[in-house]
Amino acid sequence: MAANNQSSPHAQLNDLIKAVWGGVKQSAPKGGRKGPLVLLVLVLLGLAGWTAYYTVPSDSVAVVQRFGRYIGEVPPGLHFKFPLGIDNVTIVPVKRQLKQEFGFTTPGASDRYQSPRPQDQKRETQMVTGDLNAALVEWVVQYRISDPFNFLFEVREPGATLRAVSESVMREVVGDRTVDEVITIGRQEIETESLAKMQRLASKYAMGISIDQVQLKNINPPEPVQDSFNEVNQAQQEKERLINEARREYNRVIPLAQGEKDQRIREADGYRLKRINEAEGDVARFNALLTEYSKAPEVTLRRIYIETLQDVMPGIRTKIIVDEQVGGILPLLNLGNQAGERP
Predict the structure, then answer these.
(1) How close are the terminal C-alpha atoms of the chain, in Å?
(2) Which of 10, 51, 162, 323 could bridge across to 80 with cysteines, CB 3.0–4.6 Å?
(3) Mean pLDDT of 140-161
(4) Which helix (H) or strand (E) holds 230?
């Protein structure tokens, strides 16, 4: 346990202070004025104590360098180091999601690479699409530091390199699509493809960065043609609206017409079967009647006559029966008066 305490930076710092203080005592002249020298030593010891400890936030790790050489990574918490520039500590926020903005600026950003420089803000949004049209594209790249060693030592300026990689990839992806795809229907595909290519380049360059998300913001045509482009978009939206209304009306009317058509077809089939059955029944009845007529024509004829009268007479309200032997009838026969009334 004692060996571990002596090997820690805190124990080494105590040994160093004791050694310095002992050397000062031995080198001080006997009987001389020790005040200025002691004061100087106390100032140095205070400065050393002030610079001998540091705190690592909970979302970060500390990368320790001793005389410029990489020593290791320190977890969150309170730690001690060799003072007076012997150990150099760099705080790296490995658990914090960082972002870079292209084409616009968020006020109060602490990272100098988060927002574009004023002279580059408009330039980096100007892109040419695959159909040789111009578009102004704004986007955000969200990333995390996955490897602090690579982030600090493998790339000279990882923030600036990431901005260059992001802009290059975005120009490539936008240049493979038409202006309509970039502004309207192709946003999600652009984000997905850009994310994959940015992560591939970040891994290739050993930047120690993990790309979490690429999000497109405002995408507009250049200002001179923006009004015309808005009119085209409005016309396309009106076209889509009319198409949707036509499809809705189609979906409402066509099923009704289809159902009515099927109903008419079933009614026609039923009427056809009905007429066929009636015709077949009439044929069968006529054939049976013909057979009976051929056997006894007079009897059959009289029976048919009587049956016909039985069917016809009940439907006649006023009946006039005239004897066929009478030669004529009165010129005026008033049958509409009630009984006992005179004409």
Answers:
(1) 151
(2) 10
(3) 93
(4) helix 226-295
Q: What is the CATH number of domain 98-221?
A: 3.30.479.30
Here the tokens at position 209 are 């960065």
Indicate the residue type of 192.
T
Residues above pLDDT 70, as percent of the chain:
78
Determine contact, residues 209/202, Cβ cutoff 8 Å: yes
pLDDT in tens, 105-131: 888 877 888 888 888 888 889 999 998
- What tokens appear for 135 in the block? 């578009």
Nearest Cα to Cα of residue 64 among 44, 46, 88 = 88
252: left (phi over 0), alpha (psi -120 to 50) or beta: alpha
- Tell me the whole-structure pTM to 2 decimals: 0.58
Place of tokens 């013909």: 290
Query: Residue 159's closest CA among 145, 138, 179?
Result: 145
Q: In 3-state terms, what secondary structure has residue 263? A: helix
Q: Residue type for 43, please?
A: V
**So where are the chain's domains?**
47-92, 98-221, 224-306
Q: Is residue 157's pLDDT more than 70?
A: yes
